[in-house]
Amino acid sequence: MKLDRLLKSTALSAVVATLAFVGSAAAQEVMKLRMHAAHATQTPVIGTIVPWIAERIEKLSNGTLDIEVFEPGALVPGTEFFDAVSQGAIDMAYGTPGYGAGLEPALSAFTSVPFGPGETEMLTWMRYGGGYEIFDRILAGINMKGFVCTLNPPETAGWFRKEINSVADLNGMKLRYFGLGGKVLSKLGASVQLIPGGDVYSALERGVVDGAEFSNPSADETMGFYQVAKIAYFPGWHQQTSINAVYINLDTWKKMTAEQQFAIETTCGEATVKTLAEGSAAQGPALKRMKEAGTEFKTWPPEVLDALREQWKVVAEEEGAANPVFKETMDSLNKFREDYKLWGELGYVK
């Protein structure tokens, strides 16, 4: 009798456990998502991180999120994903906030601030200086949720076919430049256009542009710019650091469980640290290889940097006057930088 009761009890427990598991599985139905990558996934750091992000989110969500990554152009052109995510045509995207400047000009300030903060200072402002609150509000206004997912080292200031010795040399030059830095150069007479990253090499090779910036040296090396433009200028005054983020359609985000949302947020936090370290480690070897291949590394003449700095003040004032959210963003960043400045001056060995 005792054995019968034990067997019946065990069988009943197994049935209950099975039903509970089936119910749990049904509640955690797999959500399939399509994610656009703004950068080719072979591009060091800013591209190679994308499959890692997708796989890490899947793992942390216990397989309840299934993310398929699409290369630039497979779903939408590389830089033109904001409308698609906002409208729900695609579920997610990865790329720099500045690509959304057509929807909200203030997003440029989260990508490329000329003469702006370095990596640590930028991340600190985002997390503890009010940056994330503004970023989150901007994205919510265009039906998106987003998280910073990379933090990149300074960019190459540009690849040029001839030297720049004076401010006058910039007048009339045809340049591929992104965001606010491009607007600054326009003030000095340059003809600026934003060519997709994958087309920059051919534009330099064919003389469509006289110079171009794209990313940091390791990414630029992969793109082969040093083969067609032998002069590289530093420092990257236009982007002392830059951010890429993961964006999710807000309606899709709201359908996720708390655990799924946590998996995305946690992954982006990990990816930020990973790219910060990996990006910094990659630049020295890349510079060495390109120098051995005949690249000339040059620094901007002081008078040119001074002129760029002055024109950035003009651009910032004009952008702020035209867009209250841009002004709010820059006011927040500038106030934080002023407070941070004393620590920066006292805390580090010069």
Explain what this protein looks like in three dimensions.
It is a single chain. The N and C termini lie far apart (84 Å). With 350 residues, the chain is α/β, with parallel strands linked by helices. The strands form two sheets. Strands 7-6-8-5-9-11 form a six-stranded mixed beta sheet, with helices on one face. It folds into two domains: 29-152 and 240-283, 3-Layer(aba) Sandwich (D-Maltodextrin-Binding Protein, domain 2), CATH 3.40.190; 158-239 and 296-321, Periplasmic binding protein-like II (D-Maltodextrin-Binding Protein, domain 2). The chain has helices at 2-27, 49-60, 82-87, 119-128, 131-141, 179-187, 200-205, 217-223, 250-255, 258-292, 302-322, 324-347, and strands at 31-37, 65-70, 92-95, 144-152, 158-160, 174-176, 191-193, 211-212, 231-234, 242-249, 296-299.
Keywords:
globular, 12 helices, alpha/beta, 6-stranded mixed beta sheet, 49% helix, 350 residues, 11 strands, disordered N terminus, 5-stranded mixed beta sheet, D-Maltodextrin-Binding Protein, domain 2, 2 domains, single chain
